[in-house]
Every structure is written in structure tokens, then in C-alpha cells.
Amino acid sequence: MERPWWMHVVQWTIFLIVTGLLAHWSYRIQRTQKPTGVGQLNHSVVMLILGVVGILFFGGLALFSNLYPNETVTWYTTSGFLLFCVLSGALILGYFREKHQVTDDGIRSVRTFLGPCFIPWEDVESIRYAERLKWFKIRSTAGEVTRVSAVLVGLSDFAAFALRHVPSGAVDKETLSILEDTVNGTAPNPWL
Prior knowledge:
Elements: H1 5-32, E1 40-43, H2 45-67, H3 75-97, E2 99-102, E3 106-111, E4 115-120, E5 124-130, E6 135-140, E7 145-149, E8 152-153, H4 155-165, H5 173-183
Antiparallel strand pairs: 1-2, 1-8, 2-3, 3-4, 5-6, 6-7
Helix pairs in contact: 2-3, 4-5
């Protein structure tokens, strides 16, 4: 039996409202959480919560879809649930592993999968903000690259150090404006 059209509208409206409320909640938590120290950038507890909830939810779906099989259970659905479970695990790994520290000398990063790197401010070739990916991409003259996500707590410290120490030609106008706004307390919203 086919559901009436308005049931689809109600279902997607509820989904969009709940998603919007979760995004707003996580944005508020991220902006009110204090950094662990001056110059320290780390993930908000929201990333840990999203990762744990994602693993429990998608792992549970994979488990229950195989414990109570029906005509819609295929290896595609199980693989899809497990893929989202692994992606949620990457959020948890990033929460515990990814760290950045900015000092007067440069930016020291421990990246989730690529390991540590250090880029001195005088060696910064460019800083660009990727609007769709919601991160600052910092490239050194030696070709070393690190990315500073807009979801990190302590982003205003990064912006202040970058504005103070990075050579003037290394930052484009749009990124310069975003860095200045971040120092003044208006960081980019990573959830929009």
C-alpha cells in the first residue's frame, strides 16, 4: 500500500527540523567551549558525541538488519551501515588524535592520518579558506600542508597568530576577512 504524499512531506519536514536543531546545538556548544590552553586548537566534545552516536546507531542498524532479516536486507544495506559506522569511528579518532598548537614560531599539527608537521610562519606560502570544506588550508614553501577545521575550539587564537605572523601576500582578501572576523568573535559557521 502506497503512503499518501503528505506523509512524505511530514517525514522530511521532521527530519530537517531535527537536523537543524542538532546543528544549532552543536554550534552553540562549540562556540561556548573553552580551549585547553592558549594557542591550543582541538575538537569540541560534539565530535566525540556524534562519533559515538553514529557508531551505536549504524552499528545497531547493521546488527538488527541481519538478526531480523526481511526482503530489504542485502549485503548492500549491511555494507552501507558499516561504512557509516567506520566514518563515525573516524570522527572519534579525529577527536582524540588531531591537535594543533599555534605559537609565535609557527603552527604545529598532529593530523589524524598523516602524522605530525610543523610550519614556521615565515615559511607560509598561502592560507586559503575553503568555504565548502570549512577549513583553512596552510601551505608552506616546502610543500607541507596542514588544514585547520572551522569546527576546532580555539580558532580565534589561530586567526590572531596568523594575522600577526604570516607574510602579507600569503593570505587572499576573502581569507583575510574571515580571519579578521574570527579574531573579533565571529568565526565561520561550520554547520551551514
